[in-house]
Specification:
- Pfam families: Mannitol_dh, Mannitol_dh_C.
- Residues 295-478 form the Mannitol dehydrogenase C-terminal domain.
- InterPro entries: 6-PGluconate_DH-like_C_sf, 6PGD_dom2, Mannitol_DH, Mannitol_DH/Oxidoreductase, Mannitol_DH_C, Mannitol_DH_N, NAD(P)-bd_dom_sf.
- One of its GO terms (molecular function) is oxidoreductase activity, acting on the CH-OH group of donors, NAD or NADP as acceptor.
- This protein is of the alpha/beta class.
- The protein folds into 2 domains: 2-293, NAD(P)-binding Rossmann-like Domain (Rossmann fold), CATH 3.40.50; 297-497, N-(1-d-carboxylethyl)-l-norvaline Dehydrogenase, domain 2, CATH 1.10.1040.10.
- 46% of the residues lie in helices and 11% in strands.
- The chain is built from 21 helices and 13 strands.
- The protein has a 5-stranded parallel beta sheet, sandwiched between helices. The protein has a 3-stranded mixed beta sheet with strand order 5-4-11.
- Strand 4 (93-98) and strand 5 (103-108) form a beta hairpin.
- Helix 6 (174-188) packs across helix 7, helix 10 packs across helix 15 and helix 12 (333-347) crosses helix 21.
- The longest helix is centred in the middle third of the chain and has 24 residues, at 297-320.
- The chain is globular, with a radius of gyration of 23 Å.
- The termini are far apart.
Length: 499
Amino acid sequence: MDELMTLTRPEPLSNATLADLPEGVERPRYDRHALTPGIVHIGLGNFHRAHQAWYTHRLMQEGLAQDWAILGAGVRPYDAAMRERLLAQDCLTTLIELAPDHRAAEVTGAMIDYLPIEEGNGPLVRAMADPRIRIVSLTVTEGGYYIDPVSGCFDAGHPDIAHDAAQPDRPRTAFGAMVAALRLRRAAGHPPFTGLSCDNLRGNGAILRQTVVGLARLSDPDLADWIDTTGAFPNSMVDSIVPATGPEELALVREMGIADNAPVTHENFRQWVIEDRFCDGRPDWDRVGATFTDDVHAYEMMKIRILNAGHQVLANAGELLSVPTIADCMAHPAISAMFRKVQTEEILPHVDGVPGMTPGAYLALIERRFANPAIRDTIRRVAFDGSSRHPGFLLPILRDGLATGGSVEGLALVEALWARMCAGRRDDGTVIEPNDPHWAQLAAAADEARNRPGAWLAQGGLYGDLGQHPAFAAAFERWLGLLWRTGTEATLTAYLKAA
């Protein structure tokens, strides 16, 4: 990689300059002008470009999937800035792989356009109604599917959903746009597209089906039935650590000799496990490393419970102790020891293995990945939206522990750390800026819980009846009290010393 770090005049990234990129940078070998669209992807952030788009690009490098190019899409006004950056460079992306001992750069070109972002989402609806589009994939975050966090049911009363049910031809949400496009496809005699969620949700395909069909049923029950019976919503599990892009990443890509205004850094690991249930064809992603299976559940549970829940185990302790990144947390003796103890005693007992991988071996893999110092995955990014991530990743494990009579001391400590973090100040007195869509509610509950811990657990939209369970409530109250009296590091030490 040293040869990639010597150029002083970065080459602007575009179709016209691909041949002029520095030696050693992989680039598309296919004719991008000959590609035709087959996929619309909604929520086009860093993860999609480092993961699903990369798999498609790699197929194209083999001369395959030329009719599966990707159209990027967004449904919120803030997506417009990313659209402008990507269109300015012909929708090319520089991926920078950051391994502990090397770096490598690759320019990918599977995405060929980014749809205009307009109120009512007309361009998106029209694109998805095109019969050439056979897959609509999404990365809209765990909290973006309009599900009640306690019941897991479709939240038909949400204002966005009520809007799309009342004005189905001018949808506000991605799901309303999907329903509108499916209505047009049905009227034209075209088959439905496959809806492919790539978010970290247990049963993400089933949840996507629930949201799309549930929304359609509010305005057109016959359409809902058609979608439900003829459409496809495969479950999938996605995995790669992809930090946010900031000044350091922008400087790095320029040092490599490329003027890319939207580069993506990622670790040297990817995994994609997909239920092989598509209604109108699919790319052969398995040829470039994806796994098609009829049983995604075991892979999904292992990853969500050990990696995604593990991120939340680390994040709030790191925030309170002013530890900036996940790798720094793994280098912190007390935080990393707490992580291992919670995992081995309270998470691994509720995880089954998958072919070729035991839970213990997977934990060892995750520890190595988290400890990669080249990946600057910030605690702030990982801790974001705890109001979705704790109910989605941690509380199901907590429920399993209570049901089986196992220890929940560590998981109670993790919840206490979250409550303490939401009070808005680190142990050193510095301010924690709002980092959750429901920050005001969380901060108010955290402030009240300082003197009355039950106030935090009384948030029924998060905990349901968990806050009434004596073992959990008692452990939570004890740990939160200790955090306020002695601080985070002393509390972690007490936990590690406990039998």
